[in-house]
Write a structure and sequence with these properties.
Arc Repressor Mutant, subunit A, mainly alpha, transcription cis-regulatory region binding (chains A, B), homodimer, 2 domains, Tetracycline Repressor, domain 2
Chain lengths: 201, 201
């Protein structure tokens, strides 16, 4: 169904549909084993059923496209209630656990991230759109905890982010290799252990 | 120089030299961008200047060979003095930091680890020869700390290993993507922050 001209089409506008088709095509090709070096804009355009100019209108190059496509695999951060630092941190860390549960996502991320030195712009883009917002959110929660006196005034917030996120990363990587499920309460257990040291006394 | 029969050759025995040539050839091919799926025993044999049977005498298949070759990239664990839990943990974590400093090592690990679902035996082998001994060593230090009363009696030792190693992993991964050097005292800072929660009071 194509509606043009006078009426706005039901559902998504056409440019948004095209963008989704391009992102899906990119992820599908990588998920099928195409490395970022091998991936071509031609192949993405053909798979998405769009012209190359439609892609170049939105993305300057392949690395920006792949970076943005990967970012769509990351679940959006939950809106946190801001009740206690503990609750907010558990909510954020649990998003990382949930991201790791999908085999396709793990597969695509592994292939796309296997040549970091060859595609620095891809990592910069992905970092900016997917990783940095999560750090900003976690930094805000920890900063609020220090300001309210819940957390130690001398807490190194960047190290605290690394400790919380890194521990979850350790478990999700191990689970990816062993195909073992992650316990539902893993985020809470990590946060509770970390807070023993972070809390004011 | 080949010495056979009566006298033992100076330097390494021939089988050990062949083994080193095979491992080096494997790592070189991967470092040049050959994925594990593409890598063939024929190519390794040609590069190492040995026959295929020499390889098969030592490794049953490609995955075992690659797993063992990757394990050689991990520095041996230091002998720890066993004075304080803190000193021993810092020594172990600093090995992880040092591993990450070599661009070639990071590159090879990234390529080899990009298809975990296709090569489960490789991961099992690598885990058994390179990762598990480190966990065993860290588990022993933490267990000794709990037994001596330095650490909390209710410490979850597996979670503590994940927290220490995962935080270092977080930094080494970030450094790999950003090409930022890791501070010399990073291991000590991670251990000191973690011990705030781990220590008995």
């Amino acid at each position: 169904m194509t509606v043009m001209g006078t009426a706005r089409p039901a559902g998504r506008p056409r440019s948004e549909r095209a963008e989704k088709a391009i992102v899906d095509a990119t992820l599908d090709l990588i998920g099928e084993g195409t490395s970022v070096s091998e991936l071509s804009i031609e192949a993405v355009a053909a798979r998405a059923g769009v012209g190359k100019t439609t892609i170049y209108r939105r993305w300057a190059n392949k690395e920006e496209l792949v970076g943005d496509a990967l970012a769509t695999l990351k679940a959006p951060l939950p809106v946190v209630e801001g009740r206690t630092v503990r609750e907010d941190l558990v909510a954020y860390l649990d998003v990382m656990r949930q991201d790791s549960l999908t085999l396709r996502t793990r597969c695509i991320m592994n292939i796309a991230m296997s040549e970091p030195d060859r595609h620095p712009n891809l990592y910069e883009r992905f970092h900016k759109t997917a990783i940095e917002p999560r750090r900003v959110a976690m930094r805000a929660v920890l900063g609020r905890g220090v300001a309210s006196g819940e957390l130690r005034p001398d807490l190194d917030i960047e190290l605290a982010i690394g400790m919380l996120s890194g521990t979850m990363l350790w478990y999700t990587k191990g689970a990816a290799h062993n195909n073992t499920p992650l316990a539902d309460d893993l985020a809470a257990r990590i946060v509770d252990e970390a807070l023993r040291g972070f809390l004011s006394r």
